[in-house]
Structures are given as C-alpha cells and as structure tokens.
Amino acid sequence: MSSNASRVLLSSHQIQNRVRELAAEIDRDYPHSRPLYLVSILKGSFMFMADLARALNRHNVRIEFMGISSYGSAKTSSGQVKVTRDLDVNIEGQHVLIVEDIIDSGVTLSYLRRLLTQRHPKSLEIVTLLDKPERRIQPVEVKYVGFSIPDEFVVGYGLDYAEDYRNLSDIRILSE
Ligand code: PRP
Ligand code: 7HP
Questions:
Q1: Catalytic position from the list 51, 104, 131, 160
Q2: Which of 6, 76, 110, 120 stands 20 to 30 A from 174 (CA)?
Q3: With helix as H, strand as E and coil as C, how does the chain read?
Q4: How far apart are CA 9 and CA 26, in angstroms?
C-alpha cells in the first residue's frame, strides 16, 4: 500500500486472536439469562464491534450505536465532546458494555460514562481494543483492554486519520 501507514503495529491475526479472548472473558462475566447491550461508539469501533459480537457465544446480544465526536480531522482531541447520535433504546436496568476502539486522553469515555450512568443501567462497563495509557488526561475505569499501545497515532481496523484508513484489517502506525 502506498501511504503513510506502512508500519504494522498489530496484524489482523493478532487482533482476531485477542478479540476471541476478550469475547470469552465477557461470556464468562455476564449472565447468559439476560440481554447484554453492546454500545458501539461510532465510527471507529464499527469493525471491533462486528468481530466481538460474532465471537460472543450467546443469542441475546443487543447491538446499539452511539455517535460521539471529539477529534474532527485532527490528530489530537479538541476536548469538546459532542453526541452526534444518541441511543434509541432505554438502558435502565440493563447490562451495558460500551465498545470502543481506542482510549487516548480519556475525555470521550469519561464523558460517556457519566452520561450513561445517569440512565441507570444495571451495570456499565467498557471494552476497548486499544489503550494509550501515556496520553491519559482524564481517568477512566476500563474493564477489558485488548492491547496497551505506545503513544503513536494509529490507523486501521476502524481507526482513521481524516476519515482515511478505516478499512485496513490490521493496525498501523501513521508516520509524519
Ligand atoms: C476517537 C476514538 C475514541 C476517541 C478516543 O474517536 O474512536 O472515541 O477518539 O479519544 P479520547 O480518549 O482522547 O477522547 P473520534 O472522535 O476520532 O471519532 P471516530 O471514532 O468517528 O473516528
Ligand atoms: C484517537 C485516535 N484515532 C486514531 N488513531 C489514534 O491513535 C487515535 N488516538 N485517539
């Protein structure tokens, strides 16, 4: 591929293996007798959501989406979180798992956690494929982390730079 994203950080194979491990953990942790609401944060987590949902071994997974934006087309968060699409279901009394592609500053997820907590779910947890702990500005409690990665701007597997690269099946480091 001719682009600024030639260094593979996580291969498709590594990602798929880890997604299966996360799904097995989630399957163990949540009662199979009740629905599990997966809330995918658009757009970045669409690919992770699709793979994670398929790797869960249960029939009562509810697929929901929210749109939250704080980056625009830049490489750093604007710090301004905007809900661009809200849930259209009532999550009161439900087990809710937020599905995110990456946690960077923590601004998006700490905002979202506060917002959804006010809706009184039975439980509210977060699964993120990637975590960049060095970048944290706001603390966020995250139950499931796929990979902890260094402070590099990454693209692929749903993650973009100015809307490009989301379709890659691996995760690559974007060079300057
Ligand atoms: C990305 C990513 C997270 C957020 C993480 O979303 O998907 O939601 O940034 O960053 P933070 O921890 O610094 O808040 P983005 O706003 O780029 O939207 P996108 O998912 O549509 O690409
Ligand atoms: C957001 C984001 N989007 C794409 N790649 C990264 O490394 C990112 N960090 N925060």
A1: 104
A2: 110
A3: CCCCCCEEEECHHHHHHHHHHHHHHHHHHCCCCCCEEEEEEECCCHHHHHHHHHHCCCCCEEEEEEEEECCCCCCCCCCCCEEEECCCCCCCCCEEEEEEEEECCCHHHHHHHHHHHCCCCCEEEEEEEEECHHHCCCCCCCCEEEEECCCCCEEECCECECCECCCCCCEEECCC
A4: 25
Closest residue by Cα to atom 22, ligand 1, is 44
- pTM value surpassing 0.70: yes
Cβ 102 under 6 angstroms from ligand 1: yes
Strand pairing class (61-69; 82-85): antiparallel
Q: Which two tokens stand for residue 152?
A: 């590099």
Which pLDDT tens digit goes with each residue over 84-130?
Answer: 999 999 999 999 999 999 999 999 999 999 999 999 999 999 999 99
Going from the Cα of 33 to the center of ligand 1, the distance in angstroms, rounded, reads 32
pLDDT band at 69 (very low <50, low <70, confident <90, very high): confident
**Mutation test of ligand 2: which of 41, 42, 71, 160 has the most ligand atoms closer than 8 Å to its C-beta?**
71
